[in-house]
Write a structure and sequence with these properties.
131 residues; mainly alpha; three-stranded antiparallel sheet
Length: 131
C-alpha cells in the first residue's frame, strides 16, 4: 500500500512539473511559437505566446528570464536617473548685495503701509514657500 501511495505522489509531482508548455485546453505537449502584432507591449516583453498544434488554442507563459532582466535593469537604472535628475535640478542661489538692499527697502516700505510694497512682500513670501 505504501508503494502505491508513493507512486501516486510521484505521478502527481511529475504531471504537475510537466505542465510547463502544456496546452491548457486539451493537455497536449505539441505547441509552436505564436506572435501577433496586436499583442500589447507588456505582453510582448513578459510573455511567450504559443499555439497548440492539436486544438489551435493560443496561450501564453510568463517569460521569467525577460522578467528578471527587466527587474535588474530597472533596479540599476532608477538610481542612476535619479542622481542625474538631482544634479541637473540643483540651481545655486546667489544673492547680490544690491538685491538685499532692495528687499530691505521693500520691507521697510511695507511696514509703513505702502500697498505696492506689501504686495511685493507677499509675492516674495509665496514664491519662497513654493520653492
Amino acid at each position: 500500500m505504501q508503494k502505491s501511495e508513493t507512486d501516486e505522489e510521484n505521478k502527481n509531482f511529475i504531471s504537475s512539473s510537466n505542465l510547463i508548455g502544456v496546452c491548457p485546453r486539451c493537455g497536449e505537449h505539441t505547441r509552436r511559437s505564436s506572435a501577433k502584432t496586436t499583442d500589447g507591449v507588456i505582453n510582448i516583453f513578459f510573455y511567450t505566446f504559443y499555439r497548440c498544434q492539436v486544438c489551435r488554442f493560443r496561450f501564453n507563459e510568463v517569460n521569467s528570464l525577460r522578467l528578471i532582466w527587466f527587474t535588474v535593469f530597472a533596479v540599476l537604472l532608477i538610481p542612476i536617473f535619479g542622481a542625474i535628475w538631482m544634479v541637473s535640478n540643483e540651481h545655486p542661489k546667489t544673492v547680490d548685495s544690491a538685491e538685499i538692499g532692495y528687499q530691505d527697502k521693500i520691507k521697510e516700505l511695507a511696514e509703513r503701509g505702502y500697498p505696492e510694497a506689501e504686495l511685493k512682500m507677499g509675492l516674495r513670501h509665496t514664491s519662497i514657500a513654493r520653492g
